[in-house]
Amino acid sequence: MLITLLLACATDDSGEAPPPYGMILENDGQLYAGVSQVEITPEIQETFQDLNGNHQFDGCLTDPSGTRGGCEEPFDDADGNGHFDPYWIAGYQSNRPANGVHDPLTVTAVVFSLDGEYVALVGVDAIGILENRIRDVKDLVEADGFDRDRLIVSSSHVHSGPDTVGIWGPDEVTTGADPAYLESIVAAIQETVATASSTMEAVSPKVGVAHLDTPEFSGEPFGGINPDASVLEGLNDIRDPIVVGGQILTIELDGANGRLATIVNASGHPEVSDSDHNELSADYPGAIRDWVGSVDGGTTMFLSGALGGMQSAGGATLPYIDEAGNRLYNEDGSPVWYDTGGFEFVRVFGTEVAQAGLASATDAQPWDAISVRHADYLVPVDNISFKLAFQLHLLDTPNEYVVRDSSCPGYGKDIDVFGCVPVSSNVVRLGPVTFGSVPGELFPELFWGVPDEPAMVDPSLRSTDRRWVQYDPDCGSIDWDTECKSSESIGVASDCDGDGPLCDGTCDCLHSHAAPYRVSDTLPTPVMDLLPGTYKAPLGITNGYCGYIVPGPDFNTFVNVTTENGDHYEETNSCSASFADVVLASFGELAE
């Protein structure tokens, strides 16, 4: 594993190259920052008629009129080539073409420098940008003198943007990625970094951390009044145990003329609008930008946090607020609840996150340093989903980017290992703030730790525990590691004495989890404990994307795209059962 402590080259009169893109690199104790944002919303030219209202294309790709047998829906063949060429929306199911735009998609960069050190943080409204495209951007900025390992690109994982990975096309064997669109994103990232670097100015920072931890945002089992019992801090964790990444970290940067930029880092899938539409949208990160811009001005950047587990406000119930940001109450003083979904739900959730984040940003201590530590590593591809995606050439990553030699753990020895994907993690320190970046959807417990509660250790307590809403009581006597970890179900000797999913004397392994529940047996955890600083936060889907980062002890190896998954859906969309261990090992070495 390669680990590099990056040291900046301060400019002087010795003939060294000038700072890249004209950025300010002064050893004067002053924090400098520049910001740039460009729109990457594609121009939609071909649409379809959704005659049955299911938001999927039920026509034929080569029949514009929709009159051929089995071709039930027509499309607008704008370029006259006789083929339907839409932008396929990523997330949820395949075969969902974009028919319009609800709100813009953007790339945003904030470049920081302090005492000769610098780093660029970039947020992209995309489901994920794969490592080969990040490599292309790094090549571009490196050619201009910018240290490639100081570029940190995080995807929001929005489920209402174009497919930038390749697995959400018109069907399961056809890619949904548009190379031209992806090339435009690469260019947009390079442009924003260059512009932000060239427009740097002295700034004063403020930092804060918030949680949606008032009673309205949690269900009764967690001490709240939300009508949804499984909601915790505004998030609906659909996988047992309920452990949410409810932290909202906010950084405000003020220049001589007021607010220059606001950075909001939060966990939760940008899928709040659901899939019952065909409009491109940034989802709740766009609503955050709208609210922050309306009250504080400047440019707002959203950075995703720990999304795995799976973190989402989608399907939850929230207290309703009006467009002025005011909470609404009934005559008896109870909150007006909103659970209808759609873009109004997006506005409500995004505004709530933005309000909480802005209210928390009160720590105005000067920043003492900026530093970046970088670790490259290889993730084995042994999951059938990803192996099929590579073999069918669905992914935006060409097969030549896959490492298939002795440097790939298991390659040539383990028949299940297709090869390895090169990715990286970073520890980015910005004064009192430290980000730990990962190339996937991190489970919150991997970053913040497992709650210290009895049911985490003793499975016999789980059937009545608030965090274990799907647990099968017939599994209390089953050893997860030896019997359930690679199985769909296990027969038990005793008769059923509960109401589990398979209440017939059979333990449903697909609704059971590691006991004791933990995230690793050998590696240092949680990640938070390995990071310095006052404020610590995860950066998800950064400088690559390899799916969910599932704790190794809880990874059910029976589950894959061809089987039922129960409460182990994340395993079907993870490069490897060893993904989490590889990530944890990288942070262990970075901490040294």
Topology (elements, then pairings):
Elements: E1 2-5, E2 31-39, E3 100-101, E4 106-114, E5 117-124, H1 131-143, E6 151-155, H2 179-198, E7 201-202, E8 204-210, E9 231-232, E10 235-236, E11 248-255, E12 258-266, E13 279-280, H3 284-296, E14 299-304, E15 318-319, E16 337-338, H4 342-360, E17 370-381, H5 384-391, E18 419-430, E19 433-437, E20 441-442, H6 444-448, H7 454-457, H8 480-484, E21 489-491, E22 506-508, E23 535-539, E24 548-549, H9 579-591
Parallel strand pairs: 3-13, 5-6, 12-14, 19-23, 20-24
Antiparallel strand pairs: 1-17, 2-4, 2-7, 4-5, 8-11, 9-10, 11-12, 15-16, 17-18, 18-19, 21-22
Helix pairs in contact: 1-2, 3-4
Keywords:
5-stranded mixed β-sheet; 9 helices; alpha+beta; 592 residues; 21% strand; globular
In short, what is this structure?
With about 600 residues, the protein is of the alpha+beta class.
What does this structure look like?
The chain has 592 residues and is α+β, with helices and mostly antiparallel strands. The chain has a domain at 454-511. Helices cover 17% and strands 21% of the residues. The chain has 9 helices and 24 strands. The strands form 8 sheets. The chain has a 5-stranded mixed β-sheet with strand order 1-17-18-19-23. It has a 5-stranded mixed β-sheet with strand order 6-5-4-2-7, covered by helices on one side. Strand 11 (248-255) and strand 12 form a beta hairpin. The protein starts with a strand and ends with a helix. Residues 1-12 and 494-503 have low confidence and may be disordered.
